[in-house]
Amino acid sequence: MQPVIFYIQDFKIDLSQSLIMQGEQHTKVEPKVLKVLYVLAQHHNEVVTHQALMEQVWQGAEVVPNALQRCIAILRKELGDDAKSPTIIATHPKIGYRLLSEVTWQPAPCEHTKPPTKKHLRALKLTPATFGLVFSTLLLLLITLFWLDTEHLQYSKLSELTRTDAHESHAIYSPNAQYVVFNRYAGGCKSHIWAKELATGKETQLSEDAGQFGAISFTSDGRELVFAAHNTCDKTQANTQTPTQCWALATLDFAQALSHPQTPHKRYQCQAQQLAMPKALANHQYAFLQFNGSRYSLMHYNDLNKTSKTLYSSNEHDIYHFDYSAKRQQFALFAQAKNAQTLLILLDEQGTIQRKIALQSASSHGLFEPLKGVYSAKGEHLLAVNNRKLFKISLTGEVSEIPTPSNRLISVAPHPDKHTLVAIQGSKDIDLARIDLTNNLEQTAPHDLHTVATPYPSLARTPAQERIARFAPNGQSIAFISDQTGQDEIWLWQNSGHAVRLTHRKNHSQIHGYAWSADSQTIAWVESGKLALTSIKSNDLKGFDLKSSVLKAESKFVSTHQPLFSVLSWLDKNTLLVLIKHKLTTHLYQLNINTNTLTPYNIGGVENAWVSHKQLIYSTAQGEVFSSVLEPNLMPARALTQLNGKALLVKNGFIYSVNKQTFDLNQYNLNGQFIHTLKTLKPTAWKVTDLHNEQLLLEQFIGIDQEVVIMN
């Protein structure tokens, strides 16, 4: 055994001789005392728990009470440290100890090997056959080791862990893999953190009060859960018209919560700017993303001295996600560059860039949403779910798909030791309804034991997600988006009562919007960043075989100077209103199809837009509504404060918007002035999408099927 020697300040510690040396002074110390110091030195500047020290130093042997505290007292005496103002060993009450000073390790001396004797050399003379056998064995061994090291990156088995009427999210393993912890949402403020013991199947509610909780992570020792908490459910805010936004970095004692639900301990309290994805570092320190009004920065918070600082921020790209690997002591940041490329940025714990990589072209894998990766258990690569599929991201930037038995993935987290993932899979069930506004009678959907109750009679009932229904301008058909085939497609609903699929796509990216041309002959939408123009001829519809569910429509694809995100509406037969994503924010443009030119409005955060009487009405992702002149950049926009941008449409020179509190569908003029109430809608069926001849189209929420599963 080689001697273990290391230095702390001007002290030399020799474990093999049980000595602490300072200059000419040599002090003999009990081996167990130095073993405690050795364990602390191995975890320099990290809190080592009492339990960990007892296990590593005494290894289960019976010891006298306060044996550990006695060792610490001896070390402080011999090293000249003061317990009240420590510079070498810090005490963390009821938790453990931390070595403050830097540690320098003395390299082990190289062994001098004896030269081989003639007898040894004769033994090494190999015949060709023996050499071939040895070479083949070594090659096979190397291949096997490579295969084991890269893991069998595919999953073929899936088992459900939960099956409830609520929906689950953000599932992770506990560090000892005995529990799976997840968020469970049951509507309103009924959201809690839960744990399921894998051996017994017992479920335990961990959070005492309902709240809005973000993605969960553990401290490395498994003692605490770490997450972002928002004040949405606070009773003090419930009756406030404009509640104060309050984000906090919160923790929960896991062991105590398993015995009885606990109130989260808010460590970094009430931040007005959004705080996301906190991760625990060593020694009561945390990292998280915080929004500063225009972009996210990676922040560091020290809970011991209550200070925070920026670890990483950039004006050249926009961070939108990160993960931390304790094994690698490394951050992986995901950002979008100005040219819309996705960047993987690897940082050390001080925020210094180790590597910055542009990930492979997303289009080669059908990836058109930002990648969000989590470290694998060993930290050798990252895992990401995109468009319901699982992908591996190497630390050198290669992206490859991993086969799984699920086509409904939402998120994954690795098992700490095995080739197993805990995942969230599921889908939303959203239907379309057509309501006659001239009929004041209550329109209810008939149902029995074998049907799902819906707020209104469904236009085309499926268990999939149907959305954005819009009448053709001639009123003869309704277009809508549905994922009933496993991916977004545009469908047509005929007045004959039959739905047909209009598009036949090859990738699984989301369709964010579309628009009818004024002659009802073309639908404009976006496919892989390109403008898609799908022609619908009247003769095709008249001669359509009702036994089929597919319409063979022709699509033309046009590349623009910048990749498009969505089509909103037609201004005229040659001009479209479109959205383009810059820095993760959608911006409004005019697109001239004939000249292929884009004219910016210099308006960010737009979600939808309409044109009426040479006036532009648009809504934002926050639900705000604004009015402006149609010509770009001529006049500043004016806020229409009475309107709800989340349930809004503009038609025939009027604005129609649904009140957030009462669900009243109200009519307004183009200046946002109230005219009258048309109808009171239902709490789960209020997102209006179009209006034609007193026939209202809307989306109605049926349910969310979102469960925790295990994949191996």
How would you describe what is shown here?
Among the domains are: 5-105, Arc Repressor Mutant, subunit A (Orthogonal Bundle); 165-313, TolB, C-terminal domain (Neuraminidase, 6 Propeller). The strands form 13 sheets. The chain has a 5-stranded antiparallel sheet with strand order 4-3-2-1-8, with no helix packed on it. Helix 1 crosses helix 2 (50-58) and helix 1 (31-42) packs across helix 3. It has 8 helices and 54 strands. The protein is mainly β and 712 residues long.
Assembly type of the chains comes to: single chain
Biggest sheet: strand arrangement: 4-3-2-1-8
Q: What is the number of helices?
A: 8
- Summing up helix and strand content along with how strands pair, one would put the structural category as mainly beta
Mean pLDDT: 85
Report Rg: 32 Å
Largest sheet: 5 strands, antiparallel
Poorly predicted segments:
110-124, 143-151, 235-243, 362-367, 542-548
E-strand count: 54
Shape: elongated
Instruction: Give the percentage of residues in beta strands.
Output: 35-45%
Spatial separation of the terminal alpha carbons:
41 Å
Please report the first level of CATH classification, the CATH class of the domain at 165-313.
Mainly Beta
